[in-house]
Design goal:
single chain, mainly beta, disordered C terminus, 8-stranded antiparallel sheet, disordered N terminus, 6-stranded antiparallel sheet, about 1050 residues
């Protein structure tokens, strides 16, 4: 460092610059030196000047690679090469005629650091004019800017047009073990040179949040390399019930891939008080995405985002959004309180496919777990081994009777216990008829001598012998003894400690004793021994007073009480008020004086102003708050990061929030979407999916549905053809539909193009006239007069001389449905036909109830070697239509264009369909390929029998298909070796006998199965395994 400083001083002081203040420069350089020396050092990770025979990677000089960046192109018409421009060499890119044609990228491994510096020269070639240039780091935009060549630009590269160089320098906060950099430009020609990637190093791996670092140690680090060739059992995460070792890659960055929507890992830990963890979650082919991170099944963080991928549209689906619409989320949990010997980390995702033929998927990399060994904020020492006193075995514990506690501080008590705010403790509630473990009895009152007093068994007054509150032998002499006691003790006044005290004089013993009640409380007025002798003598002489004396001795002292009564206080000191049960004096909140357990007192009762009920306040949704941090939330709110958060889709309706409903999913058209009721079409506000309260403009509410207001002179597109502001029939527009005169044959947009010609009737022949009059009224009319219907048939509505059927809520013979409106897209169309993809329940004298038909759905689950798994479900709950139906026999499953001898196919139920009730059924289809196939086969599944859904709607026969993955099938040589290993394993198991060694046999069997299932064809490996375990086995049994 000193040599660098000397070089800097020599270099700057020898510059011939007019007005250079050398003294000021020396001072600045010295300050710079001190900052560098006392801070973290900066290390060059990668540099490539494209004109140096050597490049530097992680401080090591290597032979120059002309182009060490990777590229993606939309078409083949582009340039990506090494180019000389003037005296410099650059990496040259020409997009040619396609915008954003060429994208360059590279990933780097990094040492522990907290900042990244990216520097390079951008070559703007051939007169740039507002050309967009973008840089992404780990899928986040760090530069998005329009660049142009200035007027002073000159030609230095290739063609005769003007070129210019701009220095790019970006510093970003970054602490991950790797970094992925993506660069591209909108149009034309460009290049980069003198690229330098630097980091600000740490001395060791730390857990930090960019504000501070913590004294922690890293105990587990995995999946941090750019290239991950394999995953061992300690690195793999649990997926679908077993430890996964699946690897995939995003260009040059590899990751641990999940075959489902979740990952889980359990890790054993040494003694600790807190943990921190870092993790990179990679999402592919998903638009709207939810990620939930749980620690020990408790939600710690949750992310919800929509599009977040690199904006790079490409005709090849592989490169859409840089790579299958790829995005990533960096998890950083810092200083999370945790003391358990094992931790379970769960990642749950909810994804929606962008490219629908493929299911979305996710993966992880760069997992780091830290532990804090000792922190006084999380451990306790009470110098005893007593449980339920707030601290046990150096770990905070709840006090007796407490239901929930935080760091040994009780929050609320169990039923039958009373919460004491002054010391955050719980005491049994005597008199509530609930018997707790510290109470002998509880008769719901405080009457003495009734068998139970102060929740302890007591004897009646006239009882000589009692047991469990029941008198066994009565004594009638108690009245005489009580009179003798009052006679024997005469009031007197004596001088005691310079004060006059009332006392009693014992005639028999001829001695003075102080005030009897004060004496019994024993406040150091006489010696303990003398007091004990006196009390015992009184009880022996007057047994009736035993309970009274005990009550006086056990009388509770209430702090801040002016006047104590028996177990209660009559009046409190200034600044304190009586509690409801009069057993304690609590500070008077709101008097502006902070005392006892009060943390603040702002003389008001306003919440969320920093002080509420003399405690630091939290948000309104918090049920219990400690020191301004929420501990318990109201129903429906989840406690995340010590705040109450409303999470749509968790199945919990958050009270006092904007949630109207929460059905636990994000599916639309099921009555609740994004925690809001899905109203009927054109409804503005509704109480559920069937009952509308207020319609949109130009619509009216009719039988809980919204229909256009016909006659308001406004045409609702798609629902109304015309609007003439009246309800006059045959005037060109009636009921907001085009309608011509009665005798019109051809009517176009309300205008008649051809009229019906009527034959003149013969004299004295009235029948044709009557027929003509009857034909004037529309179908369904029973009585017609003067071209207007007077009486309609049943279930038709007479409206302005016309019989209206469709939309009246009664299904007629010529209608397939009638839901009480004439709206489309609700299952029953405006002409009362059932719409495609829907079916309706039609009951007598009731509106038709229409629902979407349940659809057969198959989804790819995972692949293991030559076996692939597919799930079969329905979009709704279904059941068998008849009791004798056999579901599996009605299924037709085959692979298109592949002979059935090339594969084996089985189906296993997870949730089986039954006849008695509807279920979310689920079946697993297992396909094992026996021959190699070089393309993605198509699986076709057909259901050839009808079912019933949850709405008693017929589920028709249907068929669907899915593209499987390319099978990975062993050749005959690999298969032969695997079969040999299986035979060896079976013989070994048969050779292990003896009931006492079953556990050892299980261990060997489990490990051999691991080898067999991994399809290892090396016979030597299994022989070594058997030999090694046989030696260990002999040592154990000896």
């Amino acid at each position: 460092m000193l040599e660098i400083l000397n070089y800097m001083i020599f270099h700057f002081l020898n510059q011939k610059v007019i007005g250079l203040n050398t003294k000021g420069l020396k001072l600045k350089i010295m300050l710079l030196f001190l900052l560098i020396e006392n801070g973290n050092t900066t290390q060059v990770v990668y540099s490539n000047f494209f004109d140096n025979p050597l490049i530097q990677i992680n401080g090591i000089l290597s032979v120059k690679i002309i182009i060490d960046w990777l590229k993606i192109s939309k078409d083949s018409n582009y340039d990506f090469l090494f180019q000389s421009c003037g005296s410099a060499n650059i990496l040259y890119i020409d997009n040619k005629n396609t915008q954003y044609n060429v994208l360059i990228h590279r990933s780097f491994s990094l040492n522990p650091h907290d900042e990244v510096i990216i520097e390079f020269k951008l070559w703007k070639i051939d007169n740039w004019i507002d050309n967009q240039f973008l840089i992404y780091v780990d899928n986040e935009i760090i530069l998005d800017q329009l660049y142009s060549c200035s007027l002073s630009a000159i030609n230095v590269c290739r063609d005769t047009q003007k070129d210019e160089v701009t220095m790019i320098s970006k510093r970003i906060l970054h602490d991950r073990p790797s970094i992925q950099i993506v660069i591209f430009a909108q149009n034309g020609k460009w290049g980069i040179s003198e690229f330098i990637l630097s980091i600000r190093e740490f001395n060791s791996i730390k857990s930090c949040d960019f504000n501070q670092c913590f004294d922690q140690r890293i105990i587990l680090e995995s999946l941090t390399s750019i290239l991950i060739s394999s995953i061992n059992i300690s690195e793999g995460w649990n997926d679908l019930g077993s430890t996964s070792s699946v690897i995939d890659f995003c260009h040059d960055l590899y990751y641990h891939k999940s075959q489902s929507n979740s990952f889980e890992k359990q890790i054993s830990l040494d003694f600790h008080v807190a943990i921190s963890l870092k993790l990179k979650i990679m999402i592919l082919n998903s638009g709207t995405t939810t990620i939930i991170l749980k620690i020990d099944d408790i939600i710690v963080q949750q992310w919800l985002y929509k599009q977040k991928w690199i904006n790079y549209d490409h005709t090849d689906i592989n490169f859409q959004g840089f790579w299958y619409h790829y995005t990533q989320t960096n998890v950083n949990i810092v200083n999370y309180a945790h003391t358990q010997p094992q931790i379970k980390i769960t990642i749950q995702t909810s994804m929606n496919a962008v490219y629908t033929p493929w299911a979305p998927w996710f993966g992880i990399r760069e997992f780091q777990l830290f532990t804090i060994l000792q922190n006084l904020n999380y451990i306790c020492k009470d110098k005893n081994i007593n449980a339920f006193d707030g601290c046990f075995s150096f770990i905070y514990d709840c006090v007796q009777g407490c239901m929930n506690c935080i760091n040994g501080i009780c929050v609320n008590c169990l039923m039958g216990w009373q919460y004491i705010e002054i010391n955050n403790s719980c005491i049994p509630i005597c008199g509530d008829l609930i018997l707790t473990q510290q109470e002998e009895c509880d008769d719901g009152n405080e009457y003495p001598y009734d068998g139970c007093h102060n929740c302890k068994f007591s004897c009646p007054l006239n009882c000589n012998i009692c047991q469990f509150g029941q008198c066994l032998q009565e004594n009638n002499s108690h009245q005489i003894q009580y009179s003798n006691f009052l006679f024997d003790f005469k009031p007197n006044v004596i001088l005691y400690h310079n004060q006059c005290k009332q006392s009693y004089y014992d005639l028999e013993k001829d001695g003075d004793f102080k005030n009897f009640e004060c004496y019994l409380q024993g406040q150091n007025l006489v010696a303990e021994l003398y007091q004990k002798i006196f009390i015992e003598s009184i009880i022996m002489q007057y047994p009736i007073l035993e309970q009274y004396i005990i009550n006086q001795l056990n009388q509770i002292k209430i702090y801040q009480c002016k006047q104590n009564g028996l177990e209660t206080c009559q009046d409190c000191e200034n600044g304190f008020i009586l509690s409801i049960n009069q057993r304690e004096c609590v500070p008077q909140c709101g008097d502006g004086i902070v005392q006892d357990y009060e943390i603040c007192d702002d003389q008001n009762n306003l919440q969320q102003d920093g002080c509420y009920k003399c405690q630091q306040s939290c948000q309104l949704e918090c049920l219990y708050c400690i020191n301004g941090e929420c501990s318990i939330c109201f129903d429906g709110w989840q406690l995340i990061n010590k705040t109450c958060q409303q999470i749509c889709g968790d199945g919990l309706l958050a009270i006092q929030s904007n949630e109207q409903c929460d059905d636990g999913n994000q599916n639309d058209n099921d009555g609740c979407f994004q925690c809001l009721f899905e109203c009927v079409p054109y409804c503005l506000y509704c109480i559920d999916q069937y009952n509308c309260l207020n319609c949109q403009k130009y619509f009216e509410l009719v039988q809980n549905s919204c229909r256009p207001i016909c006659g308001d002179s406004y045409i609702v597109e798609g629902l109304e053809e015309c609007e003439d502001g009246n309800q006059i029939a045959n005037d060109g527009c009636h009921n907001c539909q085009f309608q011509c005169e009665i005798d019109c044959i051809t009517c176009i947009n309300g205008k008649c193009k051809e009229y019906q010609k009527l034959e003149e009737p013969q004299k004295n022949d009235t029948e044709p006239i009557i027929q003509q009059i009857d034909q004037i009224c529309n179908e369904g009319c029973l009585q017609c007069l003067e071209e207007k219907c007077q009486l309609c048939e049943q279930f038709s509505t007479l409206e302005n001389g016309q019989c209206i059927k469709c939309g009246n809520g009664y299904k007629s013979k010529d209608e397939l449905c009638d839901d009480g409106n004439t709206l489309n897209n609700d299952g029953c169309s405006n002409n009362c036909n059932i719409e495609q993809g829907w079916d309706c329940n039609n009951k007598n004298n009731q509106f038709s109830q229409c629902y979407k038909i349940a659809l057969l759905s198959i989804n790819f689950l995972n692949q293991s070697s030559n076996t692939q798994y597919v799930t079969l479900t329905y979009t709704k709950k279904v059941k068998l239509n008849e009791s004798n139906q056999i579901f599996l026999e009605a299924l037709s499953i085959f692979i298109q264009d592949i002979n059935s001898n090339y594969f084996n196919l089985t189906i296993e139920p997870v949730t089986e369909i039954i006849f008695e009730s509807v279920r979310d059924i689920n079946y697993i289809i297992e396909i094992t390929f026996l021959e190699k196939i070089e393309y993605q086969p198509k699986l076709i599944v057909s259901m050839n029998t009808v079912l019933l859904d949850e709405n008693e709607i017929i589920v028709p026969t249907s068929s669907t298909d899915i593209e499987l993955r390319i099978p990975q099938v062993m050749d005959s040589f690999q298969l032969q070796n695997t079969q040999r290993l299986q035979a060896v394993g079976q013989r070994l198991m048969m050779g292990l006998t003896g009931f006492g060694h079953n556990f050892w046999k299980f261990l060997i069997f489990y490990n051999i199965n691991l080898i067999l299932n991994s399809q290892i064809s090396n016979t030597l490996q299994i022989c070594r395994f058997i030999f090694k375990h046989q030696i260990l086995y002999n040592q154990i049994i000896s």
